[in-house]
Amino acid sequence: MDADERWIARHEALTRLGVKAQTLYAYVSRGRIAARPDPADPRRSLYAAADVARLCGDGAEGETEVRAPVVGAAARGEADIQSSVGLIAEGRLFYRGLDAVQLAETATVEAAARLLWDVRDGDPFVGLKPRIDPIVGGSTQRRVLAVLGRRAIEDRSLRSHDPAGLKQEAASLLNEVVDSVSGPGPRLYLHQRLARGFKAFERDSPLIRRALVLGADCGLDEAVLATRAAAFGGAPLAGAVLAGITTLSGTPLGELGEVVAYVGEARRDPSGAARRWLALKGGVPGFEETAAFGRVDPRARALLEAAGLPADLQALLAEGEAAAGRPAGFHLALALIARRLDLGPTGAGDLLLLGRLVGLLAHAVDQATDGSPIRARLRYVGPEPGAH
User: Fold this and answer.
1) pTM of the full predicted structure?
2) Hey, which of 1, 254, 332, 362 has its CA 20 to 30 A from 12?
C-alpha cells in the first residue's frame, strides 16, 4: 500500500465503518484509529485505512463494533441528543475529531469556526462587511444579546436554509457581534478586532484568540441543550443561539463571577484569601474538579502556559493550587488572563461568552443540518383535576 492509500477521507471511513461521525471521532480520541490533517486542506482529517479495516473485521485482530441497545435516559423518554461538534474523551477535548488544545496553538477564531461548523468548501467570512447601523454602547453582554435579538427578528427560520446558506448566516452573525463589540476600524481577524474593542495591546491578541478557541465548546450543558432545542423547533439561527446564550448567562457566568471575585481578593493576599475561602465554603473558587474533565482541565493548562502571568498572579495561582490540592480550572484561567490583559471586571465573562457563541452556532447548525430529533416526555405531577 503506497503513502496515499494508507489514509482515507472521512466520508470513506464512515461508509466502511457504517457509523456516524461522532463515533468515528470517539475512535480517534481513544487511539483506535489514527488521524492526521489532510495535506491538501488542513481543516480536514485523513484516517488510517488499516485501523478502519481492523474495526470492520477485515484486519488481523478481527475486531468488530457492536452497537449497544438504547438504555438509560433515552429509554426513560428523556432528551437524547446526537452531536458531531465536540467530544470529551480521556481528559481531552476534540472539535470534530481534532484536539482542541493543539488547534488553539495556531488556529484563528475563523478557522476554528469553520471546523466546528463543518465548512468544507469556501470561506463564509470572505467579503463580510459591517452593518451601517451597528449596535453600540453598554457592556459586551448587552451588545451580544442585542445583536442576537435583532437578528432573531430579522432572519428566517433555520428550516428555510440549505447547509451552505446556514453556515454563511452563522459567519454573518458572528461578524456582526464582533463588530458591535470592537467598534469601527480595520477589517482584521476577529480576535484582533476584539482586542481593539477591549483596548488590549495588539501583541496580546493571540492570547485572546487562544482563549476563544479553547472556550468554544465543552460538551453537553444547559446552553447547548437550549440551543439545540430551539434549532430543532425551527427558530432562526440567531434565536437558537440566543436561547443558549441567555441560558449561559445563568450558572456558568454566575460561577465565573465568584472566581473573578476571588482573584481580586487573592491578588492582595494569596495565601490568606485561599484559607478564608476554604474555611467559609470548603473550597477555593476556580480550583474545583469538573465533571467533564476530572482533575485536570487541559484548556486551563494550555491557556495558562501561554499567559505570561506576572509575579502576583503566579503567586495567586500557586497558593490556590496548594490550598485546594487541585490545578486551576478553565474559569480561573480566564479570570487570570483577563486580569493580566486588564480587560476589566467583566473581561473573563466576555471571553467566555464570545468563545461559547462560536460553539453554540456550531450546535445550532449541526442540529439543523444533521441532528437527530430531540424528544422528551413531560410528566405531570400537579394537583388532580378538580382538586382545590
Assistant:
1) 0.79
2) 362
